[in-house]
Amino acid sequence: MSKVYNFCAGPAMLPEPVMEQAKEELLDWQGHGCSVMELSHRSKAFVDVAQQAEADLRELLGIPDDYRVLFTHGGGRGQFSAVPMNLSRQGQRADYLVSGSWSAAALAEAEKYLTPNRVAEVQVVDGLKRVSDASSWDLDADAAYFHYCPNETVDGIAIDGIPDTGDVPIVADMSSTILSGPLDVSRFGLIYAGAQKNIGPSGLSVVIVNDALLGQARAQTPSIFDYQLQAEQGSMFNTPPTFAWYLAGLVFKWLKTQGGVAEMHRRNAQKAAMLYGCIDDSDFYINAIHPDYRSRMNVPFQLQEPALDKLFLQQAEQAGLTALAGHRSVGGMRASIYNAMPVAGVQALVAFMQDFEKRKG
Ligand code: PMP
């Protein structure tokens, strides 16, 4: 089977040189006579891998010294629970901006622990989806934190500017946007991300948390989700997902060789412009997101004639363009074009879409 361009939203494609290196050293990692996944997480060899990965991530994102970086379990959804357990007290309120299905799911989970305040939601104006203007948001100055998702993976809605929440710390679910461009970490109280899009394989999540927010976990917080404890233990309170952590480290190294997040931003903007350009130039494909809120990572689109969906997906697959079906909750199509998707992959998709439109439209 020849290599395909995989447009899956996650687990997503990983950079080819990273996969090549992992293959190369799978059975004998750096002369140890065994795989990196067979090493003790407490061995010096693995601790070096872990620390190097953190150092590279810090460098890539310019993470200030007063932030801890945790490599944890439980994916993005694990953090939907860990955030309220660590950052709020019983009976407190927290602000949740709902810009799509993942931030809605985060709010629903938080309801188990606190009273979430729905700050704003998605509106449809002139047939286009957008987030209501920040001036109309119902912010609570006493909220324990403000939670939002800067890139909604299912809906393809992105919020580019960082909201102004006064003294209320900002918590961001960056699962599908972290490392896709420059980021001012100092504006956030906490950033979290499941790894399986722009970081590495699933099974790992990364938390970047300001020191000031540590040490407030509720008594019943499971120890593996206690930020303070994990920070003290170098994310090794229990056995971390070591192979995923190692692969994340290879991805960070790859990002550095490519020119870091500034170069990723340039490429991602180019890829997104090509794909939205193709959609907007046609009467056959539709993306109903307001241009100011369009995601550069996940591009959902529909065919004017949904009866052709199946044929589109079948023929795309035959052309080596896989996993283009939209999320099961919304249908249609979705192209996820994270850092590891080369420009050539988007060019191939655009060529296929134009050809399909000519033949079927
Ligand atoms: N948040 C966002 C923005 C996501 O895209 C996802 C998964 N696609 C999640 C949270 C949930 O992640 P997980 O499946 O790792 O729990």
What name is given to the CATH topology of the largest domain? Aspartate Aminotransferase, domain 2
Overall pLDDT metric: 96
* Total helical segments: 9
Give the bound compounds: 4'-deoxy-4'-aminopyridoxal-5'-phosphate
Low-confidence stretches: none
Shape descriptor: globular
Provide the CATH top-level class of the largest domain: Alpha Beta
Largest sheet, if any?
7 strands, mixed
- Run of helices and strands: EHHEHEHEEEEEEEEEHHHEEHEEH
Q: In total, how many beta strands?
A: 16
Please give the radius of gyration in angstroms. 21 Å
Domain module count: 2
Q: Could you name the CATH homologous superfamily of the largest domain?
A: Type I PLP-dependent aspartate aminotransferase-like (Major domain)
Strand content: 15-25%
Percent in helix: 25-40%
Q: What key attributes describe this structure?
A:
2 domains, 16 strands, Aspartate Aminotransferase, domain 2, 361 residues, three-stranded antiparallel β-sheet, binds 4'-deoxy-4'-aminopyridoxal-5'-phosphate, Aspartate Aminotransferase, domain 1, seven-stranded mixed β-sheet, 34% helix, 17% strand, alpha/beta, Phosphoserine aminotransferase, PyrdxlP-dep_Trfase_major
